[in-house]
Amino acid sequence: xxxxxxxxxxxxxxxxxxxxxxxxxxxxxxxxxxxxxxxxxxxxxxxxxxxxxxxxxxxxxxxxxxxxxxxxxxxxxxxxxxxxxxxxxxxxxxxxxxxxxxxxxxxxxxxxxxxxxxxxxxxxx
Length: 125
Known about the structure:
- This protein has 125 residues and is mostly beta strands.
- The protein is 0% helix and 49% strand.
- The protein has strands at 3-7, 10-13, 18-25, 33-39, 46-51, 58-60, 68-73, 78-83, 92-99, 114-115, 119-124.
- The strands form 2 sheets. Strands 2, 4, 5, 6, 9, 10 and 11 form a 7-stranded mixed beta sheet that branches. A 4-stranded antiparallel beta sheet has the order 1-3-8-7, with no helix packed on it.
- A hairpin with a 6-residue loop joins strand 4 (33-39) and strand 5.
- The radius of gyration is 13 Å and the shape is globular.
- The termini are far apart.
């Protein structure tokens, strides 16, 4: 019902910035809660940030708070993750996710029904 496509990943030096995009289709975008997760090699998928439907309430993992900003443009059916002051520890595959149930957990993977294919972010030392 919902398709998500991430883009914008790549290689960046430590201290640099990168902007990821998540284009959504298949459902009215403004009704979706959106989130970003990431998974480094050999580690579990972890929450990065989320933005709610309607009022764009945001939450961030402590590890990225103050450095990453999640936003959405409902007119463009797109969510974004602006990453600044990047560290080698930010290296991971970044996934966009969407939920339709406002009662579902907002910071846990199992709260999201739809997932993109992921985009690789690599931060060099």
